[in-house]
Amino acid sequence: MFWIYTPYYWPPLIAGLVSLALAIYMRRWRPVSGDKVLFWLLLAITYWSFVHTLEVGAATLPSKLFLADIQYPAIVSLPVLWFVFVLRYSGWDRRPSRNQILALSVLPAITLLLLWTNPYHGLMRESVALDTTGPISVLVTDYGLWFWVHTAYSYLLLLGGTLVAMQMIFSATRPYIGQSLSLATATLFPLVGNTLFLLQVPPSPYVDTTLSGITLSCALIAWGMHRYGLMDIVPASRLAIIEGMKDGLLVLDLHGRVVDVNAAMLDILNVEAEDIIGESLAWVLPEIAIAKDRKERYADVIQGEGESLRIYEPSVTPLSGRSGRPAGHLIMLNDVTEQRQAEEAINRRNKRLAALNTIAASVSASLELDEVIDTIRQVLSDSLDIPCGALFLHNPAKERLELEKEWGLTAEMRAALSNYPIITTYSGAQWRGGLPGITGLPYYGACKKIARSSSVWCQIIGLPLVARGALQGMLQLFVRAPATFGEDDIAALGTLAQQTGTAIHNARLYGRLRSDARQLQALSRHLVEAQEAERRDIARELHDNVGQVLAALTFVLEYTKYLLPEPISTSLSEAQQRISELVEQVSEMSLLLRPAVLDELGLLAALRSLFSRYTAQTDIKVHFDADDPFIEPDLDIAVAIYRVAQEALNNVARHANVDEVDVTLHTDSYDVMLNVYDPGIGFDTQEMMADRQAGGLMNLRERIKALGGTLDIQSVPGDGTTLIVRLPVRQPEDGAT
Fold it and tell me: Partner of 656 for a Cys bridge, out of 105, 110, 505, 678, CB 3.0 to 4.6 A?
């Protein structure tokens, strides 16, 4: 083999060196989709370029023909490798199967076989000669039929890859447009160069313009790596990751314009890519744009309505370029519909539980019917967000349901719902069994007419309020849509209705008990008043009649005593003594029944008189302290205070074992308070109450209670006893509590 130096071998040699450098660089620092195919593609170019360099310097026909033949493994493989690489890079075929690659390689393999057996059939070269007339010797070849088949197939693969790259230009978004344009242009250079070589356009045949085009392609690929980040982020990765994402993705430039969008976002917004590419965020997603400008928390994005409603949680992430400078923003919408619906269901359940707890607490905390009804209304309107409703109470005497409390009703509805008979479409057993009537239609004509004339309330839920088998009332709840309440809501409302019925029943029982207690107190007061009136009458009778008769009898006996002899006068003196004692007993009995000084001079004078007689009878000194000036209470109150002091002093004399007792009387504009203290032996108040001792004081306690006052006994064994009575200065009117 004879080889000579010529400057024409530099173009292929440079192409080989550039492709080799790119192959090493790609293998070590650019591991991306399609990198192995591109590596073998660059090695094939390197091999072809180096062998062609040797062919350019060869001087004999056999050596040139041999070097030309051994270039063909690279020549036939380049179109296949390029086509597979472009498919992988673009994402059209990210993982071609082995069978697909073998199918693409069948025709190149046949080409190699026919090339190496060409002397027998001439399908690749019909004739070949060495032209030495030019600057260098070159092969002059008449190509056979299969060569043109091979050429057409190679062009087809190269053009196919070019078309894919061109399609990427029109469909790609930044930053992929520059990458796609680099690849498409790099494909065109070898095609143009090979066409010039086959047509023998100068500088052909002395320079293989195909390799010159390949050199330009390698240079363009190197420039694309530097300028557009070619092979840093490939479209195949974008299709595999971004387009496969379930979350919506939107890329904004520094001016807030949309430069990229994935399929999920297009589905969310129900638009095409060309409708929003280049548009501002304020037009595409105004709610996010407003929050972004105000630096507020991003609210959920809601798309659709009814069953097609979807809820998306937005996130906004700043993007930076290679230099670290801001490059735009990445907006993602994550579908959180199920999460939000679950949260809403939990919130509704918590509201229902809170409402039930509130009703249950109301049942135990208050027995006032008005308070219970107000609590029920507040729970329904505020806690359960029911905008309109009415609560009816059952009037068993009239067998009617009467409107007791409402909220959100129009004047027309209020007038129609004021009261109505129990609905005949529900049997008494159903009502009294507490079966909730749930329907999408109103229950009765008046409300039905109103509901038909209204475009707001389209469903009414009726809840009978039942307790212990008796109808207490009914709740009518007006809602805006038939789907407002689900089965769980209906069950919760049923439980709430049961608790409401119990609460109303208990409040009504308490009201009746309180009314009975008022009547009992009034009866007790009337009995006490009658007793005091009778005592006053008896005391007056004893003082005015019996006392006067006995006094007159004493005078008669005194006069007669001087008219009769000594033995008889002595007997009359004894009779006179007995009558005087009887007069004193009648006078004392009159004071005990009703001291006249109480009616004539008031409570203060009556107590002083009582304490004076008490000390004279028992030798127990009473230390009495009263306000000065003293506000005289009503007569019934004064009598009650007097009786308590009378009974307390009797108990001190019988049980306390003391020689003195302290009594204070205090009044103000509202109350009068009596305090009796003895430092005696004391007693256990609980034991006394259990054994029902001190019956007189217990009776007085009921009397004091009937007058609207309190009587409290404080005592400890060995530490004395204190009795405290508090009563209103003025007697409450009948029926007052």
Answer: 678
Residue that is written with structure tokens 């008046």 in the block: 446
What are the CA-CA distances from residue 432 to residues 356, 441, 472 (Å)? 22, 22, 9
User: Taking the domains of the chain in order of start, what are their residue ranges?
Assistant: 7-237, 245-335, 346-516, 598-737
Domain 245-335 identical in fold to domain 346-516: yes
Prediction pTM value: 0.39
Q: Is-contact 182 220, C-beta < 8 A?
A: yes
Q: Is 296 helix (H, G, I), strand (E, B) or coil?
A: coil
Q: Looking at the structure, give the CATH architecture of the domain made up of residues 245-335.
A: 2-Layer Sandwich (3.30)
What CATH fold (topology level) applies to the domain 346-516?
A: Beta-Lactamase (3.30.450)
What are the structure tokens assigned to 194, written together?
């090979």
CB 162 within 8 A of CB 188: yes
CATH entry 2.60.480 includes domain 7-237? no
Give the pLDDT confidence of 554-580 residue by residue, as tens digits.
666 665 666 666 666 666 666 666 766
Contacts of 46 (CB under 8 A, 6+ apart): 16, 19, 20, 23
Dihedral over alpha carbons 235, 238, 239, 240 (to 10 degrees): 120
**Measured distance CA(31)–CA(20) in Å, rounded:** 16
* Contact call for residues 164 and 86 (beta carbons, < 8 A): yes
Which long-range contacts does 287-291 make (Cβ < 8 Å, 24+ apart)? 288/314, 288/316, 288/331, 289/256
Q: Give the per-residue SS3 of 19-37.
A: HHHHHHHHHHHCCCCCHHH
Least Cα distance to 248 among 315, 304, 308, 296 occurs for 315
Note the CATH number of domain 598-737. 3.30.565.10
